[in-house]
Amino acid sequence: MDTKNLLVELFVEELPPKALRKLGEAFSANLFESLKAHGLAGENSVVTPYASPRRLAAHVTHVAAQAADKPVSHKLMPVSIGLDANGEATQALQKRLAAMGLDASILPRLKREGEGKAEALFFDTEVRGATLVNGLQLALEDALAKLPIPKVMSYQLADGWSTVNFVRPAHALIALHGADVIPVSALGLAAGRETRGHRFEAATASISLRDADSYAMQMASEGAVIASFEERRADIARQLQEAAAKIGGVTPIEDDALLDEVTALVERPNVLVGQFEEGFLDVPQECLILTMKANQKYFPLLDNTGKLTNRFLIVSNIRPADPSAVIGGNERVVRPRLADAKFFFDQDRKKSLESRVAKLANVVYHNKLGSQMERAQRLAKLAGEIARHLGADAAQAERGGYLAKADLITDMVGEFPELQGIMGRYYAAHDGEPEAVARAVEQHYWPRFAGDALPQDNIAAAAALADKLDTLVGIYGIGLVPTGDKDPFGLRRHALGVLRMLIEAQLPLDLVSLLNLAKGQFPAEIIADSVVQDVHGFMLERLKNYLRDKGFDPDEIEAVVSQNPTRIDLVTPRLDAVREFRKLPEAAALAAANKRIQNILKKTAPPSGDADPALLQETAERDLFEVVSRLAPQVTSLLQNEDYTGALTRLAGARQAVDSFFDGVMVMADEPLIRNNRLALLKSLGDLMNQVADISKLAA
């Protein structure tokens, strides 16, 4: 099949920068998939996405002018309905054929497939392949309809009547198959070969593309535009490193989101160096870094110790011969921002954090759960209790919990909510609070997201657990349970944070006890009675996801988590033990026996009492009783020392006795006392085997 390369570009006004990368990827991917679905692009076709502030484009290789014809088999109706006794077409079949533009003359060409009542009539034909004009029109409409547009605009076309809905007003459409224009349309635009380049630095006002393959080259040479998002991003990253290297001893701050956003703001990047007065460095560097990144899109420069310097990198969209005016303009713009940060910092330190706690009474946390001041009081008590269980300084943990939310009403956090906790640490230190208290004020938010750092000591960990448990119990307790992808209070994130702290910091705390402590801080009438059980179950589901990400097999996870563990720090050691146990040659047989025991016990009333050796009749059941009696204290001792691998390995010694019991003993004996005794023996065996994990869950 003769093919050519295809180029489609939509030229628009400046697209939202934070969405540009996704828009570009979605536009090219959806267009490509639709072309393949129409048979116009094949397995050897490759799509290349392009996205800049003013354009979305896709280049697709090996696109056919017309798709190959496709054989199609039409099922008409059952033979018993379509043909009479003489094999002639019935009226029903004739009507069906007429609706398809056919008549009874094609009867010999009909196929019969199936047998008996399922035998049906089929008509085979070929459907002409889609032309590129029609297929691309549909593909373009599909690609635009599926764009992940954050917010749609409505605007009028030049005729003054037609209204179009799109992310930004569109001004030109290009569709080139090789050098030929494909007559498609979209958003009120007819396709051509004309586009525009850089607003200020393009060589010509309009660029006429020669063919699909010259797009990137012509955009760069005539339009002063690097059309590829990825190439532009790589170019910015390279320029940032080169500019820092020229200064020496500094490194641009790493921020992938900022790099993506800046890439979406410029079409011809040019990195320049700016600076500000060193006096601003007295302000906490987090404040300065945030204002430079969030408001100005600058890349702050850090020295070799990670300390902020008074220089920063600007990603300009123009390349003047003399950049001094651009640099000077940016330096003038950033100075008031830094001055604001310094003013907020100086003003905030005039009042202590402690004096601000009372004002939290005016800040509603939730209308059913009270104010942020009431929350601070809960956090103080809960953090203190948790610290006592960890052997940490309870008074400092209480103080950290009490001050944790005070910075929410400072000027700096009011301007930059992202600094909550961070500014609390600075202000606590300024007030003379102990270092551990200041650290707890900041780190009570940790971990803030998956993979984030954990609190650095047990006092901070107590405050962080208190904050997350208070949220989980409070929000869950008033019925605001996460549903689907909706989790406005971040309960899944809080649950994962608690689990990570318990597991990765190996905190020897009982989760159910923690949840009960948190519940006890609320008035009983506002929190559901079942909240502890509900939140525990909710967190165990999050635990399964966490463990899967750590590489444990689903059946291993189920074996441990199905027992509703409360000591979360012991879950991973139990899983490691299960993993070692299943390597033993006896593991599969013991897992199968355990499953058999559970099935037997499910079908009967629970046995009364323990197994009585005087009622044992068969040699196999006496042997099993002796093995269980011998292994029980050994396994218990190993479990007390948290040697889970040793405990499960020791159980391998029961394999022969278990096999002999099931081979030679009738559990459900006619005599009630004998039957109860054998069931009691099986129950004691099952209890012994499942103290580490429910090994019946292990797949063979």
Q: What's the overall geometry?
A: flat
Sheet with most strands: strand arrangement:
2-3-1-9-10
Biggest sheet record: 5 strands, antiparallel
SSE class: alpha+beta
User: Fraction of residues in helices?
Assistant: 40-55%
Can you tell me the residue ranges where pLDDT is under 50 for at least 5 consecutive residues?
Answer: none
Cα separation of the termini: 52 Å
The mean pLDDT is 93
- Approximately what portion of the residues adopt beta-strand conformation? 5-15%
The number of helical elements comes to: 26
**Rg, nearest Å:** 36 Å
The overall strand count is 20
Question: Would you write up a description of this structure?
Answer:
The protein is of the alpha+beta class. The chain is 47% helix and 14% strand. It has 26 helices and 20 strands. A five-stranded antiparallel sheet has the order 2-3-1-9-10, covered by helices on one side. The protein has a four-stranded antiparallel sheet with strand order 15-17-18-16, sandwiched between helices. Helix 1 packs antiparallel against helix 4 (132-145) and helix 6 (229-247) packs across helix 7. The chain is flat and about 100 Å long. The protein starts with a strand and ends in an 11-residue tail after the last helix. 39% of the residues are buried. The model has no long low-confidence stretch (mean pLDDT 93).
